[in-house]
Amino acid sequence: MKKNKIIKWAFLTIAVLYTLIFLYLESSNILFDHKSLRIHLARLNKDNFWQNKPETKNWYRDQNNMSARIGNAGIVEAQVNGSDIDHTQSEIIQKGNSKNQPSNNVNDVHKDLNDGDEEVKVTIPHSAKHKEEEEHAMIHKENTIDLKQYINYNHIHKHLNQILNPIYSDKKWCNGKFIKIAQQMAYLKDSIIDRTKITPSDRGGETIKETLDQKEEREYYNFYYGAFNIQCNASKINMKFKPLHLQNWFNYLKISPLVMKPNMIITGLTIAMLREDYAHLYFTLIELYDAFLIMKMFNHTFQNTNLLILDAHPQGHMDDLLKKLFKTVFRLKHLKTLTQFEHLIWGFPIQKSSLINPNVKNLNKRLYLDQFKRTVLNQFGQKSNRIPSCRNQNILFVWRHDYVAHPRNKNGIISRKITNEIELLNVTRERFPSHNIIGIQLDALDIGKQLRTISNTDILIGMHGAALAYSIFLPIGSTVIELFPNKGRNWHFEYLAKWNKCFYQSWYNNDTQRFDSNGTSMTIPANVIRSELRNAIDNICNDKRRIKKITDD
């Protein structure tokens, strides 16, 4: 009897502990709720779900509550200057042979449109008289579909598990107007940005000359409660984001049942981005890749996605890349006082990117990296199918020269330069006469020429620096040779090269006497370059992938 009582109390204790743990995990958003699990399983198998799993149809039907009105076009194309648009106008700009022409109150379009007669809209409400016309414009060419059809989780779900959170779940509020994704992202439907709650909202996009010696803190906005707004009957949304900037944005989100009348409406998908290092190629490419993953989740491309920059950095060398890729790039000062975004995404932070996060750097590959590469190159009219030659290779030396990249370096002095550039070119051309060998400063070229040069390069060689981030756009089977001024180890460009299916070699300087008196330039031994190039050429010539490709063709 005593033994049975002990067993009974033991089971009771275990049950109580289990219940407490369950409640703790649930309250901390750690536990995967079963409905979300069913929804995600259905998403992953949506293409063949009905054929292969008819008995689980109810799991798929659970997503019917996650509906949203979305448009298959309707991205604002014009760069809008808030002070130049007449509040008494409501414009619909159409592509192709449109009969509706933009008024003089809308600034020039960033770039020509290339994808058919898809409708592009800038809507500026002004009075009840035109309310019916504006409502018609907003729903034109739209369909009411389930959010499950709008978001593509196929393959991406597992990848984002590794990148964002060991446990992936969506939490939604306000009938789907606010959806938290994996504790690292958020989707906002028909949200409104109030410029009066962000200061100084007219800053950002100036020339570097106008901002020399500007402190970095002046290049970030001050947000206040009500900067973001959602119309909803709920009084409060309780949640926490791990990324600091997303948590801050959420703290400034105002939930109110009151209807706000926007001065401007931007339709389609818009990704809000707070850039880490706007002048750095490496970080810009990481942010673009992350944005590309978000677009894949929402079945979008660069061509029909807006970018909203929520920092106040001045103009930079990477601006042309952003403008060329995205449908429209908005800065805060381009918006009206109250601007409504039909579909707004708060993207996950760069620290969680699989291209930079050391916790996931050992993955063998990166999701959609090949497609990202092709997409960017195609946008600039370049191909990504070059096969490296064995006898006639294109060898590119990337030089680092002084230049002003941001306001805090007004003298433009940079480090890790090579003193004997001409010597290295002459020696390698003499040693490898059948190959095409050039040396250039990439950042002196426009983005299009940079990508054209890289996409036709077989061997890329240079000092450790941002330009080696272009490894991601090299032809498959190429080689990257990274030169380090010291023994310090850095894996970033090595992994970019390997994820792009390229060979990687490195050399580390161990002689401080090779530096100049300022410590910003150093001499690279010619025999080192000859040896590294010899190995690189042999690797390319013996690459079975290259041989197989040539044989197959």
From TrEMBL:
Family matches, as Pfam families: Glyco_transf_61
Domain Glycosyltransferase 61 catalytic: 332-481
Domain of life according to the entry: Eukaryota
UniProt GO molecular function: glycosyltransferase activity
InterPro entries listed in its UniProt record: Glyco_transf_61_cat (IPR049625), Glycosyltransferase_61 (IPR007657)
Protein name as catalogued: Glycosyltransferase 61 catalytic domain-containing protein
Organism: Owenia fusiformis (Polychaete worm)
